[in-house]
UniProtKB/TrEMBL annotation:
Record-given protein name: Glycogen synthase
Function according to Swiss-Prot or TrEMBL: Synthesizes alpha-1,4-glucan chains using ADP-glucose.
Keywords: Glycogen biosynthesis, Glycosyltransferase, Transferase
Lineage: Bacteria, Pseudomonadati, Bacteroidota, Sphingobacteriia, Sphingobacteriales
Domain Glycosyl transferase family per the UniProt entry, residue ranges: 287-434
EC number: 2.4.1.21
Source organism (scientific name): Sphingobacterium hotanense
Family recorded in the similarity comment: Belongs to the glycosyltransferase 1 family. Bacterial/plant glycogen synthase subfamily.
Pathway as given in its UniProt record: Glycan biosynthesis; glycogen biosynthesis
Enzyme class: transferase
CDD domains hit by this protein: GT5_Glycogen_synthase_DULL1-like
């Protein structure tokens, strides 16, 4: 079985969020299970592409509206990611440094999808499955069925994965001229509420759609930024499959990005050694429990209540807790956190931005990780934390409620119900009572580290879905 994953992110080529981690791992584990899986994505002028060797395997031309675009398909020569990686380069369109935030994003992603299909058709390539990830490639299921040029690809099965239904790729209908010629009777498949909506198009036209957790699938029926009725109507082809993590990259026993490696037997010593390094660097007390947040400063991540949570927890002068924040995003949220650094000097450490190595070190050093999310389709941070013996404190939402069970329900984490600073802070205090009982906390930590959230099980579920569609 041949599967091509289509995405605009893939770790470590280009990463903005969890989408990249999924696309950078799932194909590798599918190959280990006997599937010929590969990734095709846009070319970005970033460190990975600069440092690795690529060979040009195809060139072609497409008209996007009246503009003639030349594209080139590059293949990474040594398959260093554990699967074949193909990049689509289009001068002036798909050759930039950043993944997002350009004013012509719609044109970029249309050109990418168009070039992918042109390459497949002109080279007479027909994979069994095109697995499309998020709205950036949401037009693919429509294009292969209803455009004049690509109906020869219509028998390829399409799977579409919703990583975050809040972002849908909306564009005005004046962009329709950029698409390959299509059966105009089918215009309604592109439309949602007067706009071209690639996410809605994908749900309408794909053979099956998946979400990155079972909990998130159910939530999309109730709230999906206007698409909840569509998700519900198409529920017959829906599947919730929780994301996994790559233990080759996320495992404290062999992680090359942390100071001190450790397993379950050495967790106390290993975490303390990593905590001492981090706390010394940021002026914190390594003798205190360490609570951390890692992520985007966005309201959907609940980051807007971080400052009130910190104030609630650290205002008592005798509090036995340090806090570390690693993140970037909304300037107002960042400023609210920055304003607390002097007030809580010695108890609050921050790094504004994203640093992959530092993130690994924070997981290894922390005792607790907080995720007060409003929306969390799956969440990977809580899975990384559990692997490193860092106990997650999460809001009961989406994939968080699927993967974190409260200790009071014989689980290995701490769960609260609402996006509320006082409630979140109270849950942190509840967690601290368990930390104060060293034997009890050691048991929780050991149980957490023994959990298996690797990609093996999830990769097999996707393969089972492919086989079902091919039958």
């Amino acid at each position: 079985m041949q599967v091509i994953h289509l995405s605009v992110e893939c770790f470590p080529v280009a990463k903005v969020g969890g989408l990249a981690d999924v696309v950078g791992s799932l194909p590798k584990y599918q190959r280990q299970l006997g599937v010929d899986a590969a990734v095709m994505m846009p070319y970005f002028d970033r460190k990975f592409t600069q440092d690795h060797e690529f060979e040009s395997i195809a060139k072609g031309e497409i008209y996007q509206g009246s503009a003639l675009l030349s594209y080139e398909v590059l293949r990474e020569s040594k398959d260093t990611l554990g699967f074949p990686l193909y990049l689509i380069r289009i001068p002036g369109v798909l050759d930039r440094e950043e993944v997002y935030c350009y004013p012509d994003e719609a044109e970029q992603w249309i050109a990418f999808q168009y070039a992918v299909l042109h390459y497949l058709k002109t080279n007479e390539l027909k994979p069994d499955v095109l697995h499309c990830h998020d709205h950036h490639v949401g037009l693919i299921p429509f294009l292969i069925r209803y455009t004049n040029d690509y109906r020869s690809l219509a028998d390829i099965r399409t799977v579409f994965t919703v990583h975050n239904g809040q972002y849908q790729g909306w564009m005005n209908w004046n962009k329709g001229i950029l698409l390959p010629g299509f059966d105009t009777w089918k215009w309604g498949l592109l439309d949602w509420d007067g706009l071209i909506n690639p996410l809605a198009t994908a749900i309408k036209c794909c053979d099956a759609y998946t979400t990155v957790s079972e909990g998130y699938l159910e939530e999309l029926y109730e709230e999906a930024n206007g698409l909840q009725a569509l998700f519900y109507d198409e529920r017959g082809k829906s599947h919730g499959i929780v994301n996994g993590i790559d233990p080759a990259y996320w495992d404290p026993i062999n992680d090359q990005l942390i100071i001190e490696n450790y397993g379950i037997a050495q967790v106390d010593e290993g975490k303390l050694a990593n905590k001492k390094i981090l706390c010394t660097q940021y002026g914190l007390d390594p003798a205190l429990p360490l609570l951390s947040f890692i992520g985007r400063f966005a309201s959907e991540k609940g980051a807007d209540i971080l400052a009130p949570i910190i104030e609630d927890l650290l205002s008592p002068a005798d509090v036995q807790l340090s806090v570390f924040i690693l993140g970037s995003g909304d300037a107002n949220i960042q400023n609210s956190i920055a304003a607390l650094t002097q007030r809580f000097k010695g108890r609050l450490g921050v790094f504004f931005g994203y640093n992959e190595g530092l993130a690994h070190q924070v997981y290894a050093a922390s005792d607790l990780l907080i995720m007060p999310s409003r929306v969390e389709p799956c969440g990977l941070n809580q899975l990384y934390a559990l692997k490193y013996g860092t106990i997650p404190i999460v809001r009961k939402i989406g994939g968080l409620k699927d993967t974190v069970i409260d200790v009071e329900d014989a689980g290995y984490g701490f769960v609260f119900a609402d996006v509320d600073a006082a409630q979140a802070a109270a849950t942190v205090r509840r967690a601290l009572t368990y930390i104060s009982d060293e034997k009890q906390f050691d048991e929780i930590r050991a149980n957490a580290m023994e959990l298996d959230f690797s990609w093996h099980k999830s990769a097999q579920k996707y393969i089972d879905l492919y086989n079902q569609l091919l039958r």
